[in-house]
Specification:
Radius of gyration: 38 Å
CATH superfamily of the largest domain: Glucose Permease (Domain IIA)
Number of domains: 2
Helix content: 40-55%
CATH class of the largest domain: Mainly Beta
Distance between the termini: 32 Å
Order of helices and strands: HHHHEEEEEEEEEEEE
Amino acid sequence: LLQRLSVEETRQRNQIFKQNRELLKLTADYQTLKRDYTRRVVRYYKEGPLLDLEVLLSAKSINQALVWLKYRKRIMDADKRRIETLKTQKLKIAGQTNRLRKSWERQKLLIAEKKRERRNLSIQRRRRKKLLAKIRNNKKIYAQKIKEYKEAEAAIKRLIRLNERTRTATANRRTEVSRFAALKGRLPWPTRGRIINHYGRVKNKKLNTIQENIGIDIKAPFGTPVRSAAAGVVTAITWQRSRGNILIIDHYGGYYTVYAHLSEISVVPGQKVRRGEEIGKVGNSGSLTGAMLHFEIWKNTKIINPEIWLKRRG
């Protein structure tokens, strides 16, 4: 966003410079024409009657004299129209330049505000990083986190069980079952990145503790798009202290995918989603290790290893 704003600010600044040059040229033309017109008028009032008399006396006919008078009037009228045209153009360009300058000033203020936000965000991230470093070395807090992970797992299981109770099986859903089941080993990855915590037992070497990971953790930059692994319907959006923002998608036939630690969610409960459709962005809500996506696959209320469902990367 900041880059786009900077590009737009530069474009507007260049446009202002261009219009200023055009305005200066028009002003110069206006002043020159006005000066010539003024001189011509002054000369006419000083010498015009004598000049007209001289032309009339030297004219070979009345028609020739009338032609001269019409010619002089036409020149004067043309100068006057040209002056008015230049004046109108000058006012128009001045108005455009003024509006563009105001827009440019607003753009500069917006860029300055975005830069301040980015600096503040950078400061907050550094503070968060220091805090996370302390938390990782604190067994008591880490144990609390494990407890919260289990509570999050139980909450997700309750949501899935509730959804299974209220669903009504249809032929269409049976079709969807076969589609999802056929994707085993071929599911697209929900986001770009690498797995930092695999499915199953994960050991914390610093604290010498074991944690049961019911999904996989994919390390990715903050704000990286998160996409639905398969077609389905958003069945729940919730928040847990240990997982942050959580999104659950029902793929029918008891198959569910879970996406956690999201910084943004771009869908709503009940919304149908396509395979590969963006549903949110990677975040660090509830995370101890910075920005990442926690991804799970469930079959009814049982957890499935996501790694055997995702397609292999070359």
